[in-house]
Amino acid sequence: MSSFSVEAQNNALYFDGVNDYIQTDYAGISGNGARTVEAWIKTDKNSLPANQGGQGQSVIVDWGSLGTGTRFTFNILFNNAIRLEAQGNGISGTIPVNDNLWHHVAVVYDPTATNKVKLYVDGVLDVEGNLTVSVFTGSATDVRIGGRIDSTNYYEGAIDEVRIWNVARTQTEIQANMDAAFCGPQDNLQAYFQFNEGTAGADNTGVTTVYDSTDNEYEGTFNGLALTGTTSNFVAGDTELAMVVIDNTVTLESGVLTATEVSEGVTYQWIDCDNEDTPVEGATTQAFTPTLSGNYAVIITNDGCSVQSDCVEVVCTAPSAIEVTDVTTSTATVSWTENGDATQWEVLYGPAGFDPETEGETVTVEDTTELTLNGLTIETGYDVYVRAVCDVDFTSNWEGPFSFSTTDATTPIALRFDGVNDYVLTDYTSITGTGARTVEAWIKTPYTSTQQIIVEWGGGSGSGSRFTFKTQNGHLRLETGGAGNYIEGSTSVTNNLWHHVAVTYDPEQTQEYKLYIDGELETSGNFPDGGTNTSAASPVQIGARTANIPATVFEGSMDDIRIWDIARTQEEIQAAMNSQLCGAQDNLVAYFKFNEGIASADNTAITTVSDSSGNGYTGTLNSFLLTGTLSNFVEGAAGIVAVELDNSVTLEGSVLTATEVTEGVTYQWIDCNNEDTPVEGATMQSFTPIADGNYAVIITNGGCNVQSDCMEVTAGAEVCATPSAIEISEITASTAMVSWTENGEATQWEVLYGPAGFNIETEGISVTVNDVAELTLDELDANTEYHVYVRAVCGEDFTSEWEGQQAFVTLEEAVCATPSAIEISEITVSTAMVSWTENGEATQWEVLYGPAGFNIETEGTSVAVNDVAEVTLEELDANTEYHVYVRAVCGEDFTSEWEGQQAFVTLEEAVCATPSAIEISEITVSTAMVSWTENGEATQWEVLYGPAGFNIETEGISVTVNDVAELTLDELDANTEYHVYVRAVCGEDFTSEWEGQQAFVTLEEAVCATPSAIEISEITVSTAMVSWTENGEATQWEVLYGPAGFNIETEGTSVAVNDVAEVTLEELDANTEYHVYVRAVCGEDFTSEWEGQQAFVTLEDTMECEDPSSVSVTDITSSTAMVSWTENGTATQWEVLYGEQGFNPETEGMSVTVNDVAEVMLEELTGNTTYDVYVRAVCDEEMTSSWEGPEVFTTQLLGLNDNVIKGFVLYPNPTTGIVRISAQDIIENVVVYNLAGQRLTEVKVNAAASQINLSQLPVGVYVMQVTALGKTGTYKIAIK
Q1: Which whole number is the average pLDDT over 868-884?
Q2: Which of 158, 462, 545, 637 could form an S-S bond across to 549 if both were Cys, CB 3.0 to 4.6 Å?
Q3: What is the per-residue pLDDT for 562?
Q4: Are 71 and 149 in contact (CB under 8 A)?
Q5: Residue 329, in any domain of the structure
Q6: Does 325 map to a domain?
């Protein structure tokens, strides 16, 4: 699991607006994907456009590519409000955010919404709407913070908490967590920069990177930031932003892990670090005792934040080197090596692949590191695990699984050939001539000698007369005699592992010969010299050449030799290679299983092996010792499954059930009284006859059939099914839960239990259970083995058989350990800390205390303590001896003995020293700074002040001060004498004497001078410049204006002006008289009188936005064109609209906004396409000229280039068929293509001038490629 925590600081980054920005390695959301961008910002920059008196836009976050709709820019521009731009168009907010206060801002883009763009300020929707261009964000530049991707429009001010999501967040979601830093992964949060890497205002030049706090772990690199001082550096973030800090340390003591964090509301979840951080079920308290060795950690959650501790190793060393020996049909001996000090182990075993968490049989072993498993099933695969038991509920990890299989008389047996003179000679002449065939075998050999024969027959002097299947130099090989008549593989089969090998010959196939290894085609091919024409000279021989050449004898094991008179397919080979065949098989002509002997036993009495195909052939064993393990019958290939069917049947009531349940098995019940006639439809494992009689079942699997004995059945006999699967759980010292599976329809059962070995006929305790198949046994003896039986009660005197016994052992009697090592610390006048050592597993204790000598039976004060073995005693008497006792509370009415007493004496009553040296400074009209000297250790004081002579017992204003011995008094009356007193606060109801009084007089009331000489200038249709003379020291003024005669008390528009005594009034009505007033703002609620009114009249509205003219298109290529025009007015911004010829400029086309220069390069045009282009001037946000155009142009044919061939001339063009070409240099050749790029004709010229006949081409446009002196020019030519 990934998680992260919020540091105990809340910093932001201040960008200088010159060249500061953060370049991240996060590509952002591309294309038309939904997204949300959030940030906290603080700025006072005027980001209005320059033509509106501002410094231009300030970019908060930007990414993408430069192109219409491909850049995604979140900035501040018009109205000093936030704005979204997707290059070519934008949507602006209305709420100014440049008031130097912290604001949360967000932009949401949802391609599926009616209004796709929404802008939010402080969680409130500002505007929503749609862009006029399509958003398809590019990937040229990764996310940049504080500047635009083209290195312009830098942000000035502070930015914090930048979040980018890949979903369109709702207003509710934005509001829910905009005021808090995230702590922990958030769904759909793709990038999150908190800017907490540095220290506010410090030297952070050593910090080079900011980090993304999501699991994506992006990084941001500083560009331009000085990283020192109060700008261009880390600064303090918004103090209102909630921060969460969690301690993720963990301690380990005596196998117990304890989390340090104990804040109110905190939750815990312990996890297994070695198991993909899987939560440990039920481990949700502060302390955790693992039951298995391993690495563990805790996830601590508080207030929506999660942190994860480091993983801590808790070790009970696991055993190693598990071995299983002496395996029989039903037993096996397990042994292991102990690697620690354990003297007790648990052995867990079950069928191969069982789940060790929920399944298997467990045996406890003491003192010896081996165990014999009994009662195993014949020919069954098992897994076994072992773990050490180091203490109660503390074990090592499981070691294992070690896999083994029990043996059985039907386990496949193989023949081991000694490589000297062992071979099998059969009486089967086999397939002769060119007949199709397949030979299969299982082999196991480590020897890579020149050749080892698997099977051979035929022979003689003719080419292709023998058929020899063997290994040669470790590879599989087939030979038929004659030079070159062989096929050989390349994969080694001599690695001492069992391999299934096969060769097929099919004269009807293109590739006649094929070799297979483990069912996969190894190689195929044909013979060059006569192919196959097998003679009948020698019968099939296994393990040596028919000529008995010693150098060809096989050394190793062979099993399951099969010869077929067809060429089998790969699918047929794969389908049957892993199981012994049972019953007659089509086209199988010889089959030697080698199951006649017993593995590694004395088999000297056996002289032959039998053919199992049904043809009755025999193989004679030659030279085999038939004892030991090197020249004898041995254990066969593990990959061969011997098919054995259980033909037993059970009868319960009138229901017959076959025992065999192997996968793929089929059933057919037959009537023994009616000549074994099949019972129609009776093909399931269970069968209920409708008539009395004798019945049996025929069971079929893998080509094998068995029939059960006939069994007499009385139709309609009632059955009371025996329960099964008794389980014992929730075992304690005195109780246990018993549950079982009901296999019929019983709703009542009898449970019988007692000490191990009790007689179920005469002893035990019987309990009747109704409806629910479970029962809790209680009042059991601790540490005692019990046996349990269950049977169904189907009616009066009608019960099933007993199911059982099921054994279990109750737990040992619980002990409530007495605590020890009581310690008293942090003793004060009235408090003391008591701690102790818990010696068991108690998490609750009782602490009893009182004056020395109190009676613990009847006196003292009792305190209940949970989870942490410590408590602070409070409200103690000073200078008094106390006694303390502690006991563990292990359950209701279950406690340990008292530990104690532990004595201590509280401190004497403390003295609270009186402050001194009160000083009054920084006196103004309404404020004054009070400071004093602290003479003790107080960190809190009370300051009391009021008009001179006030009564300190009943009057005055009281202020509490913490940590710093100074205070600013405010809201004082001007020119007034005050008295001040100070005292220390050393504790609740524990203060020093008053120090004082200290007297001072506030300054006289200040004067805010009224401005004068208001002037109106630069009057236009909608604007006017107002200026005035400042007669005092004010740097802020209020300008109030409105239509002539407006009421200045209740009407008019107010504008706040800073620093410069002038302002431009905007958005005025044309040809209207206005009145203007000005007053100075000298402080909060402290202004001068109004100066005015000053009257003026705006100009008449005669302004027009002139149309551009002279639109021209130059520099046309296949994908670009330069558009320019003449500006006939004063516009510095234009809109260019273009599209394929004939597009509707009212509803279609691609729009490009152009600033300052009356030209633009159109890009990404389509080759050989005619376009219309229009231009209009943008004179104001809502004022544009008419469209000028269309100007028509056609892009070049894709692939045409400049005339790179000196002096090249092509004419006539268009042509009717003959075209003449010439150049300064020798023209080498000419190639003509159609516009689809298909080559139509080529002419070798090798002259400086020539004519080309193209009359064979139909009317149309073509591309001519001309080569001269190694240079190639491409030209368009038309044929009419």
Answers
A1: 94
A2: 545
A3: 96
A4: yes
A5: yes
A6: yes
